[in-house]
Amino acid sequence: MRRNRWIVLAFSVLLVVGTTVSWSRFQTAPVGVTMTAAAKAYLETLDEKQRAQSTMKYDSEKRVDWHFIPKKERKGLQIRDMKPEQRKAAGQLLKASLSEAGYGKAQKIMALEGVLNELEKKNPGKFLRDTERYFYTLFGDVGSESRWGLSIEGHHMSLNFVVEKGKVISSTPTVLCANPTIVPSDIAGFKKGDRVLAKEETLAFELVNGLTEDELKVALIAEKAPREIRAAGAAQPPQDSAVGVTFGSLKAPQKKLLKELVFEYLRLMPAEVLSARNKAIIAAGPDNIRFAWAGARKEGVGHYYRIQGPSFLVEFVNTQPDAAGNIASHIHSIWRDMSGDFAIPVAKE
Fold first, then answer.
1. Assessment of whether the complete model's pTM goes beyond 0.70
2. What are the start-end ranges of the E strands in 64-142?
3. What share of the chain is helix, strand, coil (3-state, %, to 5)?
4. What is d(CA 269, CA 141) in angstroms, rounded to the nearest whole number?
5. Pairing mode, strands 290-295 and 245-246
6. Mind listing the pLDDT tens digit for each residue in 136-149?
């Protein structure tokens, strides 16, 4: 019965925001087939030098070398070095890989680099802020009968996929971040008050602040939030036992909030991938999902949460200052596959 309630929530939300769950409600081809076609079209626009930059062997160590921090060098071909038709093809590949909601968030995260560039002009940092410094890498031979990988990565974003015979078999790690949390003024195409990762934060605050005293004793794992998510840049998610309050022990209002919070991450993916993730949650038992919190329970002060079930892990941290010095206005968030990222099974002890 409890599993059924989780299913009902997922599909009721799908009905409400159906047009934002997948890029095209009328797309009938499996997402992996669409991604394969988009990847081939992208490759066809590249010259020999660019193709060498943008492709690697499937078993390359670089396939599992990921990060969302600003880096001087990254694998792949960056948007800045692409011609207009190549940028268009790269954009179509990104679009094919995500839902409409996910694609919108990815675009806004890249655009936030323009906000940072403006905010840091008076006090430039050591990192280049560039909306076009996002890199595309394809691993292996892209084809309908092959296994191939995709990385689209830059500051505050890391998207990683594996497609096998036209089916997406891995879509993690999935990283989307935001700095600043709240845009302070009309700047670089944003309006004052815009929030790229709004519900990921506001739903969590509503959830934690609605817990009973006894529930909070279990959910609160530290008075101070950690500075960063765990295992950032590691090829596999941390395998520590889940901590915090269980979904099964929550009252109905908090259960609803936790479902909605998980769905905010699920809806980044096309409906087919969303459904696979949701089925894994149901198969493992939603009651086994735990919600943990660390740090302050109000905005503007460092805070962190973790949602972990047998099949997935979500981590969210907001502890770093923004360019204006606001104490906590810099979000890092991630979804990982507890059975193994990059279509690589986690070794069992």
1. yes
2. 77-78, 134-139
3. 40, 20, 40
4. 23
5. antiparallel
6. 999 999 999 999 99
